[in-house]
Amino acid sequence: QSVTYSSGNWAAFTDNVKNNHAHQLNLITLLTNDIEHEKLYFDIQPQVNLTNQSLVGGEVLIRWHNQYLGQVSPSEFIPLAEQTGLIYKLTDMLIEKVFSWASANPQAVANQYLSINISALDLLQEGFARRMVTSVTKHQLEAQKFTIEITETSVFDNNTIVHNNVKQLHNAGFKIAIDDFGVGYSSMQNIVALETDELKIDQFFVMNLLNDPQSQILCRNMIDLSKALDITSVAEGIESEGILQLLRQWRCQIGQGYHLYRPMTPVEYLALLAEKDLPLSEPVNRA
Ligand code: C2E
Ligand code: MG
Ligand code: MG
Ligand code: MG
């Protein structure tokens, strides 16, 4: 894991630096302050229907640019936010930003949906779903246009608070996606118990598709499992045409990855939507 400094240089975090408490404290202080001042923002990575190439929506990805640290990766600061309890404020702030933006730019969710990552810790909090529902209503948005991406953990097993939150989100119309499926903790039982709408196959399998027979078997089976359970299959981390073709052949429904689109600013995303939403057959000049 690494942090980019504004100079543009990459400074690799050695284990030494990573375990350096002073450094961690510094990161926490800066993150606390930037969350307080709502300095975090988001990019959107488009998602494509693999059957007909249409743009089905986008995943909201949080971004943090700090004046001293430069760009810090969410893989670095999200775990830190979770360890320190900053995550609740961070999620609330992000949801508010995304909903305000979608409300100000209704074309963003007119024909497409937006996926938002939330932390497992959010779902363990009583009242989380109620706040989401209040917020979506306040912004006069349809919950149906939003998918909540969650990464399962073992704490979800038979957890009443988690299940109540998910049920409330569902009842309000939100869709539920299980993120990073197939790595770490994934329970088949939870897929059913959480009434999952979407399975996101972890990019680890997708990236290795062309050269790893085991990833092929697992990936194919995850797609088939989704189909059997009537759940939408999404592959993330599509980095090449070869991988894309394989996934198409296996009837994976939705794709996401650098080979299709990189994460982009909300302004760029709107421009892309405007371009893609043009009628497929423009009037032809037959003269
Ligand atoms: P994720 O939810 O699995 O998101 C996908 C990550 O893969 C994103 O990294 C995306 O930029 C990256 N990606 C997409 N396509 C490709 C590809 O073809 N190749 C490669 N190498 N990478 C690709 P990002 O934005 O750095 O986010 C990392 C993780 O941080 C996310 O993984 C998610 O777990 C977490 N995260 C991001 N935004 C949020 C947020 O708003 N809230 C929470 N709680 N977590 C977030
Ligand atoms: Mg995600
Ligand atoms: Mg994730
Ligand atoms: Mg993922």
Automatic annotation (TrEMBL):
One of its GO terms (molecular function) is cyclic-guanylate-specific phosphodiesterase activity. The keyword Hydrolase does not apply. Keywords: Membrane, Transmembrane, Transmembrane helix. Residues 24-277 form the EAL domain. It comes from the Bacteria. This is EAL domain-containing protein (Putative c-di-GMP-specific phosphodiesterase class I). The lineage of its organism: Bacteria, Pseudomonadati, Pseudomonadota, Gammaproteobacteria, Oceanospirillales. The chain holds residues 286 to 572 of 572 of the full protein.
